[in-house]
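Sample 1 of the test manifest.
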Amino acid sequence: MKKEIFEPYNVSDNNFEQCVKCTICTVYCPVLEVNPDYPGPKQSGPDGERMRLKDPEFYDEALKLCLNCKRCEVACPSGVKIGDIIQSARIKYSKSKPKLRDMILANTDIVGTMASTFAPIVNTAVALKPVRKVMDSVLKIDHHRMFPKYTGLRFETWYRRYAEKKQQEFKKHVSYFHGCYVNYNFPQQGKDLIKVMNAAGYGVHLLEKEKCCGVALISNGLIKQATKQAKHNVEAFKKSIVDKKMPVISTSSTCIFTIRDEYPHLLGVKNEEIRNDSELATRFLFRLIDEGKLNLVFKKNYKKRIAYHTPCHMEKLGWSIYSTSLLKMIPGVELVQLESQCCGIAGTYGFKKENYQTSQEVGKPLFDQIENSKVDFVATDCETCKWQIEMSTSSKVQHPISILAEAIDVESTMKLWQK
Amino acid sequence: MKFDNIIIGGGLSGLTCGIKLAEQGKKCAIVSSGQSAIHFFSGSFDLLGKANGEEVTNPLESMKSLPENHPYKRVGLDKIERLTNDALHLLVRSGLNLNGQADRNHYTLTPMGVMKPTWLTLSDFTSFDQKDSFPWKKAVILNFSGFLDFHTLFIKDGLKKFDVHAQIKTVSMKQFDAIRKNPSEMRSTNIAKEFDKENAIEEFAQKANVLSDGFDVVILPAVFGLFNKTIADKLKEKIEKPVLLLPAIPPSVPGIRTQITLRERFQELGGTYLLGDNVEEGVFENGRLLEIRTNNHGDIKFEADQFILASGSFYSKGIVATHDKLYEPIFGLDIDGDSNREKWFDEKIFNDQAFMHYGVKTDQKFRALMNGEPVENLYVAGSVLGGANPLKEGSGAGISLLTSLHAAEQILK
């Protein structure tokens, strides 16, 4: 018998017709549970879509309360792209204009460039209570929120100065999409990535010019700008992947999810040529090890009890298994897998004054799990999850790549492939 | 990525099979395309409720009259009794509290107000020995104001046949004001989430105690204990009269708790549960399935020594029917079903529909057939197997549980 491919017949551009009204998605929506003003994924997604197709007036501005966590899509037994339907509806029908606050939060690139230029001043200023009160009352950025510190030496600058030259010494090469957080706030994560990849025998290169993936622009309704940046990034990725045959890896689960899936689904930016070779560093490393092309040697004295938190977009990608598998390879690591729950921050969502309470209530079950887990620290692949967990629990958070960087015996690992 | 066993499908069959194999030390993965049909669980696992149109009292005995191609017959009636015990013990080890036995059906009251024979019932619900009597004379049916998924009039009408006087009353509590604001979200799982927080149970029990004054039994929708596993027991302690919970419209609160309990058991045994992923194809060589490719994992393929297909029937797209053909969408396995569309269905909707009996063709060892030849290491379990009409027979859960255990035993041999 010839294999048939199942292709559902849909009249609409999305696949809301596949919804069988089972309501399973509503069980797993983290927002609905704490904020009844949100109509829930079924009503906001496939049910609402049918109404909106008849008359756009049925669009409900409450759809902005969706975190875009995609947990509804993971739960859906019928494969309905519920999260995409909701986000597309916001893009198509929302009449609310982004506020100044939204533009500041969304433009991580521009704000990051400015803030890191004046890092000491900015860091001191935004940490001051009076400044946070003013940001709270004028900009509606919640005063409970601490901005991540800006670095005085951006990752890109550090790379050009101290790392670039050495990368030519390797036989194999990858490009690194570092994202805004690594560049403006936490270059150490990028340095750790280079350390691990170099140990594995790969030279690490930057893209010709990367721009912010645009996830915050999309969620704040700045679609034109997001689309422009998406097109720019796809071209930059093509230069690496197609022209130079260098895959692109990243350490941010949300950046890579946005580039792989949100570009085509929400922005209509085609990415077929680059999608398969754009991935997370943990998946890239896992593949090498799985195929027997890489062996990592670990330090004997590294002993930690670590809890792994699955970020929502990691849950959607289904890729947490790569990060946890790598962590489990470290002999001294005792890994606690936390039940996969949303931390509530959802990028810029939780920074907004009107969302602060929802954000913290959504995250509470996860915070309780972490406090009860008695671990040395939490590991996760998402930078905004890291902020939220560090702001809301007593635990520190590290990226799996940074953990590897600390646990790997670099010289012994390199000797294995240098032979 | 290498596993000992990979199971396609994360419902009752897939989880049972995965738990059994993981208990025996196998490194297992389950790939599930979304949350499973256990979310629609009524609270009872049926083994055999009807055979040849007659209600069954002893399922093990009545199985003898089933057709030869029925999954129970194909597993072998000599093995079935042992497998029913194994299934019960596996579920209990996983943390489910169940009542019932395989050689004598008990009864549960349905939300339509009728008694239905079944095998194992979650301890949330009440099991009855008799189908034609109800142990109480006066019943109060309590519902939540604004909750549309509990159809009290059906229950009241049904109870009339048992000479029971039933009265319907509603309860309002401020804890539910927030979810009531949105009529489409006033559903059982959201009510359950409020009770889970433990700040509504005390007040609710007090109200129930007042409203049930003068009645013998309190009938409530089963909206207790979604993620909180102790709340249903607390409720029964706090309400003075006997409490009879009845299923509400799905998603089912006890069902979701059951799914979570089984999934956690599988994971605690070291199993990998991949949710929201689809198996797209398999790589076959010399009659063996070597590896599968999934949507999320792309070029990183999953290898295993044995695979189990537990992908469900039409509803879960384990098999698909289009206007002109039937097929198994993952591997293109052989289908046991009529190629002539005219024969798929009977126009009288309540008749035994032929399509309900369709499924993947297997050999005697429950290995899938592909182009007429068995795939050496691909076993089939649960409702994707043909040969039964679970709806007519009341046999769905039994077939899922027993064929999965049988498949696991083939692998463990």
